[in-house]
Amino acid sequence: xxxxxxxxxxxxxxxxxxxxxxxxxxxxxxxxxxxxxxxxxxxxxxxxxxxxxxxxxxxxxxxxxxxxxxxxxxxxxxxxxxxxxxxxxxxxxxxxxxxxxxxxxxxxxxxxxxxxxxxxxxxxxxxxxxxxxxxxxxxxxxxxxxxxxxxxxxxxxxxxxxxxxxxxxxxxxxxxxxxxxxxxxxxxxxxxxxxxxxxxxxxxxxxxxxxxxxxxxxxxxxxxxxxxxxxxxxxxxxxxxxxxxxxxxxxxxxxxxxxxxxxxxxxxxxxxxxxxxxxxxxxxxxxxxxxxxxxxxxxxxxxxxxxxxxxxxxxxxxxxxxxxxxxxxxxxxxxxxxxxxxxxxxxxxxxxxxxxxxxxxxxxxxxxxxxxxxxxxxxxxxxxxxxxxxxxxxxxxxxxxxxxxxxxxxxx
Length: 412
Prior knowledge:
CATH topology: Growth Hormone, Chain: A
Number of strands: 0
Subcellular location: Cell membrane
Transmembrane segments: 20-44, 56-77, 84-103, 109-131, 143-166, 172-190, 210-238, 244-266, 278-296, 302-321, 342-362, 368-386
Strand content: under 5%
Membrane topology: Multi-pass membrane protein
Number of domains: 1
Radius of gyration: 20 Å
InterPro entries: MFS, MFS_dom, MFS_trans_sf, Tet-R_TetA/multi-R_MdtG-like, YfmO-like
Protein name: MFS transporter
């Protein structure tokens, strides 16, 4: 099957209602990744919180998401995709609303953790649900899913910035309302599942997968890479010194860059170069971009350009890293992805508060230099493990595999 082969089935615009319902919910779920970014300074001001405390909004969300990823395949294989989706959506509604009504930063941090659990349950199941419900062939369903992912990644910061101009509580209320609509749509439009088709996954499977050398190498590289990812995303709103709407527009551009390169540029590169070659080239480029962010930290325009360029590089790396995980072993893809994602989220969880602590202890540019060094370590890990990663340089994946890779990559 060729990428985005539209010869099968019907047009993307002729999908059944079930697909549109899950697609809409997917857009909202992916928005949650960058939603709080533009309102971090506002939260710090309104709740009398330190920058490090506000960065814990990312840490609690990503830490719980990472832990949950080890268990989502086990749960969905037993209770079914629809129930898993609905539990995830219900948790997001509950905890987003609770965060909006909170009176302290500690409460918001705790409720973001619950939000992370709901997001892990939903996103890990959404792709399979869309593919299973599609009547126009897998190709059209995956194009819709990729479009939902890209829209969510880009719109999240923009919506956060727009609603954040009214109040820092606005983005949380907005998410709760949108997810409530998505919950109703899925409960009404998504049909019953065939229980006999479920294949239970062992609870220990993702942990056992980490014993595989290829998975261990990629997970370790992703852990250090994710430190760079989340320093750029979560720390940058503070040195930019912009209002919520300005930050929303900047990170809308960042999200759009991530989406475009992950969906279009990464496949073009891997069609012409080995995946390990792409990783060994783009990771050092990201190191250079992060060091440049440190150099231009006092220039608003310079820092914005580093954010946008960083988004382009991050989109390629997200996709290629996770495609590599999918191809590295004979393990079920859901198991390999769960193991890899669980580890990489640890880097994402640690990075935001580490960045503000480094800035307070040394100087404002220090987080970018440390992040650049961390990404360079990721590049060295990949280059030293080329022999163990020989399988990842096989031919292009089928369309479903590509979408699975993009999904897992964009989760963090």
